Amino acid sequence: MKIGIIIVNYNKKDLLEKCLHSLEKVSYEKFQVLVVDNGSNDESLEFVGKNFPNVDLIKMGYNSGFCKANNIGIKRAFELECEAVLLLNNDTEVEPGFLTAMVGSLDCKEKIGMVAAKIPFLKRKNLIDSCGLVITPDGLTKNNGSEEDVSLFNKKEEVFCPAGAAALYAKQLLDDIEYDGQYLDEAFGFYFEELDLGWRARLRGWRCMFVPEAVVYHLKSATAGAYSEFVAFHTNRNIFYNIIKNYQSSLALRALGLTFLRYGLLLFGIFSGKGPADRINKQIGTFKMLRACLRGWFDVCRLLPNMLKKRRIIKKRISVSKKEIQTWFSRFGISFFDSIYK
User: What percent of the chain stands above pLDDT 90?
Assistant: First the structure.
């Protein structure tokens, strides 16, 4: 099976160099690396062209966003007759056997069309960044195993969907969920795009396997920063996009109610000095946090007709029962309060 490894880059030549060098040691033989550059001005293009001539370099010429750049890369990979694609962040470094382990777990006959890697932190290799994603009742997602010891995650098991830092998707799955020429929904821009893709794939009956032998180290938030107005804006907005598009009616109503309850609890967290809202507030300040929320809500209202149109299309194509969807929140999810304070 030929694999397309797609790396989106924007002004991170040093990180990209380390990522590409780690890929040179990969034991799997049949793969093509594609770098989609979002208009870098830090000599990334010249560096890749000179030092990695076998890399398929796609020059966007402007910052198109994470989703569109990946979609361009996916289409190019399929033109090169790749049967699956690995979306890989530029701030990652891989173990030589990771791709063999991931590809070996794909099984489209059993509807396993997504594979999640074991992703420790690059600078704290004893701790997990992500072992796939878990879902919450209010439309959010968390990294499975985040900040826990790597030794606790040595069992191959089903998870909801992969984390975006290293996510393998079969071509059959991507063709099945593609809409209007897009695999990742470009309205998301950045953040939670892999959650949305995971929901759409799940609703079509596809599954995801976590493979502990597939080890990918992740620097984490190297481009946007862990706590920034940019991150706050996109995550705040994209929660609503996910609920509107993918949650069934009763689940969506509950999720929207919990989302606004979340705002109140996060506000309390600022005053009590607890939780992610406090950490973001300390980094960017209350005014920027409020501005990010308001901008996000404005975008949700502006794009609501488009999201409702996508919702209708997704709903028509659901191939799993409501009962099965309900089970996902217990099998692959965490509670509302755990998602806020943990």
Answer: 76
